[in-house]
């Protein structure tokens, strides 16, 4: 396993093809000037000992020196082994509403995409915490078990969409029951469940389920996406708008954010409701909540003992520079023997 400490320096790698481009353009310009000065036969007699290979060897050597020096500046590190590392943090589980009403576009680009953006930005602010993801509509499905691998969390998050569950509805009760299994320590006091939804079609017993979760130490924060004015639910195929969802009477369905039920769910577990349309506020608020909570200690497997490897690349870069200075700047018999262009 490896990691790059200073990735910014890798942009300098563009200098390698630039060196070759300059070399090719200079060679073409030199040939045109030489052709204007004398014929190729006369030039061959005037510079009989000139090496055709040495300029190519010089640009190869300089390119390799530049390549290794840039990699050295980026400081690649190698993880030598898997180790059990103790960390402190909070377990935070996201329950994402994937019912069809989440396709409404009253918030850009849509309610479901807005929900995923919120989770991604919150994950970016996490430290030693662990994260899990649940998707729910008429039932609930696990998307990602509790983990400290934030890269995996963001990867699995991309697969969350309204096609995950065919049956429609809003089974927050099942999502709450599933979330309980995500927390592996019964004595843990810092269990956070973040429900992201438009609040539509929640069952009547959801408040009782929220109160049960609170008894087990789970604090629920609800994030409402969408607007209370509402919007139509688009029906798309291959990205093309085919129409809008209609009810049994042929009327266009208007889906509205139900802020009140989301506030009641949060209040039932001593949590809080947050307006999800204000991204920066949501991220800042939850960041402060997590920072002020008691941290639990847990163990996780990760690559440890990362060691700097920059010295090897810098040494190779300097070696090729020395080759260029001491071997390619003067006449050398071995290069004459390697002159493959004669």
What is the secondary structure topology, with strand pairs?
Blueprint: E1 2-4, H1 15-37, H2 40-46, H3 54-74, E2 76-89, E3 91-97, H4 111-124, E4 130-136, E5 140-147, H5 150-157, H6 172-180, E6 191-197, H7 206-215, E7 218-224, E8 231-232, E9 234-237, E10 240-244, E11 254-255, H8 259-268, E12 272-275, H9 279-291, E13 296-308, H10 310-327, H11 333-337
Parallel strand pairs: 3-4, 3-6, 6-7, 7-12
Antiparallel strand pairs: 1-2, 2-13, 4-5, 8-11, 9-10
Helix pairs in contact: 1-3, 3-10, 4-5, 6-7, 7-8
Just give the CATH class of the largest domain. Answer: Alpha Beta
Q: How many structural domains are formed by the residues?
A: 2
Q: Distance between the terminal alpha carbons, to the nearest Å?
A: 47 Å
The structure class reads alpha/beta
- CATH architectural type of the largest domain: 3-Layer(aba) Sandwich
What integer is the average pLDDT?
82
Largest sheet: 6 strands, mixed
The topology string of helices and strands comes to: EHHHEEHEEHHEHEEEEEHEHEHH
Count of DSSP H/I helices: 11
Instruction: Evaluate the radius of gyration.
Output: 31 Å
CATH third-level topology of the largest domain = Rossmann fold
What is the assigned CATH homologous superfamily of the largest domain?
Answer: von Willebrand factor, type A domain
Q: Could you tell me the strand content as a percent range?
A: 15-25%
**Global morphology:** elongated
Helix fraction, binned, reads: 40-55%
Number of strands: 13
* Widest sheet: strand ordering: 5-4-3-6-7-12
Q: Which runs of at least 5 residues are low in confidence (pLDDT < 50)?
A: none
């Amino acid at each position: 396993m490896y990691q790059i400490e200073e990735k910014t320096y890798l942009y300098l790698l563009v200098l390698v093809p630039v060196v070759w481009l300059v070399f090719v353009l200079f060679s073409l310009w030199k040939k045109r000037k030489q052709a204007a000065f004398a014929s190729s036969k006369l030039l061959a007699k005037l510079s009989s000992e000139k090496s055709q290979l040495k300029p190519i060897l010089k640009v190869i050597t300089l390119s390799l020196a530049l390549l290794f020096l840039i990699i050295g500046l980026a400081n690649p590190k190698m993880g030598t082994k898997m180790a059990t590392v103790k960390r402190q943090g909070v377990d935070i589980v996201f329950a994402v509403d994937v019912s069809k009403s989440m396709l409404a576009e009253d918030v850009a680009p849509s309610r479901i995409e807005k929900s995923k953006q919120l989770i991604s930005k919150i994950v970016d602010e996490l430290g030693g915490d662990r994260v899990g993801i649940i998707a729910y509509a008429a039932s609930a499905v696990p998307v990602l078990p509790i983990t400290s691998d934030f890269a995996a969390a963001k990867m699995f998050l991309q697969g969350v969409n309204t096609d995950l569950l065919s049956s429609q509805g809003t089974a927050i009760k099942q999502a709450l029951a599933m979330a309980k299994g995500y927390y592996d320590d019964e004595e843990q006091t810092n269990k956070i469940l973040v429900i992201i939804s438009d609040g539509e079609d929640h069952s009547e017993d959801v408040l009782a389920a929220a109160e049960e979760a609170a008894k087990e130490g789970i604090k629920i924060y609800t994030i409402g996406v969408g607007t209370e004015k509402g919007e139509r639910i688009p029906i798309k195929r291959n990205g093309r708008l085919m129409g809008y969802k209609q009810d049994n009477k042929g009327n266009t369905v208007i889906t509205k954010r139900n802020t009140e039920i989301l506030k009641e769910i949060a209040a039932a577990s001593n949590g809080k409701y947050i307006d999800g349309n204000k991204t920066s506020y949501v991220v800042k608020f939850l960041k402060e909540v997590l920072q002020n909570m008691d941290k639990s200690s847990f163990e996780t497997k990760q690559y440890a003992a990362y060691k700097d490897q920059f010295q090897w690349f810098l040494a190779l870069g300097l070696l090729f520079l020395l080759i260029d200075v001491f071997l390619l700047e003067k006449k050398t018999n071995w290069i004459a023997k390697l002159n493959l262009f004669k």
